[in-house]
């Protein structure tokens, strides 16, 4: 078990990639906090993992609210006494043509996707610094480097995540805190399910990749385990693109 005796906090763990990562960490021996703005979903995903309740905690988090982020991390320490891994996964998207975007649309996406990563990473790093190290993993996106239609604010938020990953790695390296990012391409989740249910959309998205398919949530789990484990102890400040080759076509 590659994560035995580790404690991991996964935001957005009530569904999609976050749920898959959190359950994957449990299988690798970690104790896991399933944090989500929908606590009922987080609770169900944790229970469905089949792990004993002493191995997990399901809790509410609003990643864009500093007080709430602090409270979530305090609950983590109270329950498990440490925090070794953060996966800043929680995110939202609003797909609209650029000229139809509102200021509220932009602010909401940035609040969750960019500010949320900043707040969670900062609070987690404070704990990790006292402990003598840890691993922070951001969920970025191929849109951080590749333009897509109707995704201006989403791409901006993920570009911010990509930049923060590098800068945080630089600032935290002397504290033995590694900071890396996973940049998924199109992944079949609850957020993309409606769009990908259209056969033409699915065929188009699949055709954009070298492997001729979209990703599944399980495709993210292996890289997330690797970056959380000691196997990646000399890796920091980097992006792992999990996109079926989309970014190199």
TrEMBL record:
GO terms for biological process: bile acid metabolic process. Its EC number is 1.1.1.47. It catalyses: D-glucose + NADP(+) = D-glucono-1,5-lactone + NADPH + H(+); D-glucose + NAD(+) = D-glucono-1,5-lactone + NADH + H(+). This is glucose 1-dehydrogenase [NAD(P)(+)]. It comes from Priestia filamentosa. GO terms for molecular function: glucose 1-dehydrogenase [NAD(P)+] activity. Keywords: Oxidoreductase. PROSITE patterns: ADH_SHORT. Belongs to the short-chain dehydrogenases/reductases (SDR) family.
């Amino acid at each position: 078990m590659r994560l035995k005796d580790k404690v991991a906090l996964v935001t957005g763990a009530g569904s999609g990639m976050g749920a898959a990562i959190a359950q994957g960490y449990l299988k690798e021996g970690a104790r896991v906090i399933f944090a989500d703005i929908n606590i009922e979903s987080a609770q169900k995903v944790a229970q469905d993992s089949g792990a004993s309740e002493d191995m997990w905690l399901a809790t509410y988090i609003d990643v864009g609210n500093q007080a709430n982020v602090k409270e979530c991390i305090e609950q983590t320490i109270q329950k498990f006494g440490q925090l070794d891994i953060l996966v800043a996964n929680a995110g939202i998207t609003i797909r609209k043509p650029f000229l139809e975007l509102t200021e509220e649309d932009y602010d909401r996406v940035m609040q969750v996707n960019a500010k949320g990563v900043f707040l969670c990473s900062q609070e987690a790093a404070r704990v990790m610094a006292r402990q003598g190290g840890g691993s922070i993993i951001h969920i970025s996106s191929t849109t951080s480097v590749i333009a897509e239609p109707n995704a201006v604010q989403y791409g901006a938020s993920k570009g911010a995540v990509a930049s923060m990953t590098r800068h945080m790695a630089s600032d935290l390296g002397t504290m033995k805190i590694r900071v890396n990012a996973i940049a998924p391409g199109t992944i079949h989740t609850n957020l993309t399910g409606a769009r990908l249910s259209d056969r033409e959309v699915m065929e188009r998205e699949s055709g954009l990749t070298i492997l001729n398919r979209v990703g599944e949530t399980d495709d993210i789990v292996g890289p997330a385990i690797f970056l959380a484990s000691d196997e990646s102890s000399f890796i920091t400040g980097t992006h792992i693109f999990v996109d079926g080759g989309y970014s190199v076509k």
